[in-house]
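Hi everyone, sorry if this is the wrong subforum. Our group has a chain we'd like a structural model of before ordering constructs, and none of us has done structure prediction before. Sequence below.
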Amino acid sequence: MSTVQLNAALPPPFRLHKFTVPQYHQLGELGILTTEDRVELLEGWIVAKMDRRAIHGFIVGFLTELIQNDLPDGFVVRSQLPMTTKRSEPEPDVAIVRGAHADFRTSHPTGKLVRLIIEVADTSISKDRSKAEIYREAGVEEYWIVNVGDKSVERYLFSQTNKAEFLPADSIASVSIGPREISIDLTRLFSEQ
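Answer:
Right subforum, don't worry. Here is the predicted structure as tokens:
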């Protein structure tokens, strides 16, 4: 009797099923998917979220607090909460969204309401880079990947024909939110202390 070896890097040779956003929501409503499952919907596929190390939590908390303190009226910070696109429902680490928290009582924000998304890539750099196209297509204006390993920020300016910048750890990252300019000293973000 022969056995079939499966390559762990490739999906199994079985028929796979893509889900729509409403089907994904229904899996949650039926209790098939729960918050313990730690998944998100990306381009119709239910994808496992990466484990979070302490540095990931520190950077997400640091950015959320810093941005929240400088945010003008008419914007909110959402941390590790879903946004909805046509075929995806990612849960970005930090999102600056137009509106108020009460606006999202019955639905998640769409990309057109999102000014900036920040993903912290500790063990997930390739996955976070692949999300750039999802966010661009959804109408998000700007996307940052905080690359923990390289101590840099990859900045995608979708409003400027997908211009990408790479900011090293010794620079200042800034973003205009309404009438305010929010600056982040990356040396503080990546400092070991």
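For your construct planning: The first helix runs from residue 21 to 29. The beta strands are 39-42, 45-48, 75-79, 94-98, 114-121, 142-147, 152-157, 163-168, 172-177, 180-185.
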